[in-house]
Amino acid sequence: MYGANLATIPQGVDGQKVLEEMRRRVFSSDGPAPGSPEANIPYLRSEHMLVRFLIARQWDVEKAAAMLREHFKWLADSKMSILLQDPFPEEAHIKKYYPQAYHGTDKFGRPLYIERLGAMDMPRLLQATTPERLLEYISASCELQIRRRLPACSLMKGEVVDKSLNIMDLDGLGFRMVTHSTARRVTLEVVKILQNHYPECAGRTIIINAPKVFSIAWSFVKPMLDDKTVAKISIFGTDREAYSAALLELVDPDQLPALFGGTCICNDKDKLSCMRCVKGPWGDEAIRSILDREPLEEIMTPAGCRRYHEQLMKRELDHQQEQQQDQQQGQQPDVALGGANAVEPGMASAEPEAIPTPDIACAAEQTSVVANLAPASSSTLPLAIAQARGEDEEEEEDTGAADGQDKKKKKKKKKAK
Predict the structure, then answer these.
(1) Calpha distance 42→414 (Å, rounded)
(2) Which letter does DSSP use for residue 380 in this model?
(3) How confident is the model at residue 178 (pLDDT cuts 50, 70, 90)?
C-alpha cells in the first residue's frame, strides 16, 4: 500500500492484515468464477483493485468482499470480455445525441472526462439504440477507464493515476429532459454502475451551467451518492468566468477545450471537435504498446509505472537525438557518397517525421473511441502477419522481375558486340 491510500485506513485497523485477508478471499470463493474470462485476469485480484474496494467499504473485509463478489458476477453477466471487443458501430450516433468524451489530462495527470448532459437528446438517441445497449456502451467505457486510460496516464506521469476529473456541462438542460422517464432510468442505472462497480475512480466533479431545473434532477440523484462522493462535487451556474477560472486551476489551457475557457480546438475550426477527437496518453502508440505487452497489475504499482515511464522517456530521448543527427547530416554535403545520394551545397534535406507527442497534438477524429482503446486482439495478428508476408512476396517478385530484365539487357549487349 502507498500514498493517499494509507490515510484511508481507519484508526485501530491493521491495513496490511485486512489486505492479506482480502487477497486470500478473492483467490477462493469470493473471486471470479472458475473458468470465466475474469478468472484469467490477474489485475482483478491485484492490490490496486482490492484497495479500491476496501476504501469504498471503509476497510471492512466482509463488506468489501461482498462488493467484489457482486462485481465479478456483474462482469460475467454483462459479458464484459465480449463488450470490450465490440466496435459499437452506433457510437457516432450516441456521441452526437449524448455528447461525452475523454479529452486530455489535468495538472495531476488525471484523465479529463467531459459530459454535455444538457445537450442529450434521448428521443433521437433511441432511434439508433436502446437503453440496454446504451448501458452496455457506458459499462464498456468505464471498464476501459480502469484497464487502459488510467494505466496510460500512470505511464505518462510515472506515478499511479487512478482517478479522473469530470466536467458535467448542463447547458441546455430543460424540464423535458429532467422528467423524461427513460432518461431518468438510464441516469439512475449509470449512477448504480459507478457506485457499485467503479468506486474510488472520481477525483473531482465540476458541474457547470446548472439551470434552476437542475434542482429537480439533483433531488433524485443525490440520495444515491455517498457523502464522500457528494463532497467531491462542485456546482456552478452559468457564470462562464467563474467556472472557467475554477477549471483552469485544475487544467492547463491547452488541455481544456475552448468551449469551457481553455485554448484547445482539436481541428482548429470547430470548438465541438474536442468531443470527437482522441487527446491523451491513451492515444499514444508507444504507451498503447506497453499496455498490450506488460501486466496491468504491475503497471499499476509505484515501482512498475515508474520503470515503464523511464523506458518511455529514454525512447523519446533516443528519437530526439536521432532527429538531431539526421538534421545535422542533412545540412552538410556528403562528398563521400556522391551520385544521387549526395546533398548539394545549400540544399536542405527533408525534415524527419515528427514523433507524436502525447497530450499536445490531438489525434484525428475517431468514429469508434471504444474500439480504438480496446486491447489488441490476438485474432487480428494472423491477418497482419499475412499482409506483411504478402508485401514481402510482392517485393521479392518485383526484385526477381527486375533481375530478369537486367539479365536480358546483358544478353542483348553481348550479341551486339
Answers:
(1) 71
(2) G
(3) confident
